[in-house]
Amino acid sequence: MLPPAFLDGLAQNRIHQIQIDSRSTSLVQNMFRLSHAFSLVGPDHLANPDYHQTKQILELAESASLHSVWIRISMIHTLERTQFIPAPIERVWRYFSTPENLNALTPPEMHFEILGAPPAMYQGQIISYRIRVAPRVRVRWLTEIRHVREGAFFVDEQRAGPYRLWYHEHHFAPVEGGVQMTDRVTYALRFGPLGDLVHTLWVRRTLHRIFDYRREAVARLFSAT
Questions:
Q1: What is the dihedral of CA 177, 219, 180, 106, to 10 degrees?
Q2: Is the pLDDT higher at 195 or at 153?
Q3: pLDDT at 140 (0 to 100)
Q4: Class of the CATH domain delimited by 77-221
Q5: Three-class SS string for the chain?
Q6: Does 7 score more than 50 pLDDT?
Q7: Which of 44, 97, 145, 189 could form an S-S bond across to 195 if both were Cys, CB 3.0 to 4.6 Å?
Q8: Most distant CA pair in the chain: distance in Å?
Q9: What mean pLDDT comes out for the span 105-112?
């Protein structure tokens, strides 16, 4: 079991030093990719091999011999990026409000695939797609367009997928010579403190890499001519 002192610290939301072993990277990747199994509902979930494999991984995580890593027990995370786009607001909005353009903004190694042919964005729209979250592991992700203000912002929120919470705001503000675009993501992983460990070791770095790619892709698509 996890040490009682560590659990006491969680309740006080303090910074604690915990340990992970040299297998941690692959371990937390497995925990993240298999966390989707715990979101399964219905009478067949106990027959799902991922469900039992996830339990085994969590048991291994609790009994592993450990190296030193600092993490802050903070289950809600945010990521914010701002980018200037040298194009009219109408063109920028038209591009980002078209779901099929998501593929061009996602790193190829993630094998992003929209399921079906969603129309132009509207409030309440459900978009389903598959994405790779670890080598040889792809999960289905379902998002809802929760809010839309034409030409100004929209919000997509996960309805089913690998995260416990995913709330992505897209803001567009006309400025001199173009548009200031801001992405603000509020997100959380499953598994409480173990999910936070996954975030510290792997997920945060992966998300920054995804948004770095997105920035470069947007710069290429809207380069001034």
A1: 160
A2: 153
A3: 92
A4: alpha beta
A5: CCCHHHHHHHHHCCEEEEEECCCHHHHHHHHHHHHHHHHCCCCCHHHCHHHHHHHHHHHHHHHCCCEEEEEECCCCEEEEEEEEECCCHHHHHHHHCCHHHHHHHCCHHHCCEECCCCCCCCCCCEEEEEEEEECCEEEEEEEEEEEEECCCEEEEEEEECCCCEEEEEEEEEEECCEEEEEEEEEEECCCHHHHHHHHHHHHHHHHHHHHHHHHHHHHHHCCCC
A6: no
A7: 189
A8: 61
A9: 92
Do the beta carbons of residue 169 and residue 152 sit within 8 Å? no
Residue 216 has pLDDT above 60, yes or no: yes
Tokens (6 digits) for 32 = 């993240």
Interatomic CA distance for residues 64 and 36, integer angstroms: 23
Pairing relation of β-strands 77-85 and 113-114?
A: unpaired
Mean pLDDT of 110-116: 91
What's the pLDDT at 45? 42
What confidence tier does 161 reach under pLDDT thresholds 50, 70, 90? very high
Q: Quick one: residue 12, left, alpha or beta (phi over 0 = left, psi -120 to 50 = alpha)? A: alpha
| 179 alpha carbon, distance to own chain's centre | 25
In angstroms, the CA 49 to CA 71 distance is 30
Query: Where exactly are the structural domains of the chain?
Result: 4-72, 77-221
CA distance 171 to 82: 9
Residue length, the chain?
Answer: 225
Residue 224: band (very low, low, confident or very high) from pLDDT cuts 50, 70, 90 = low
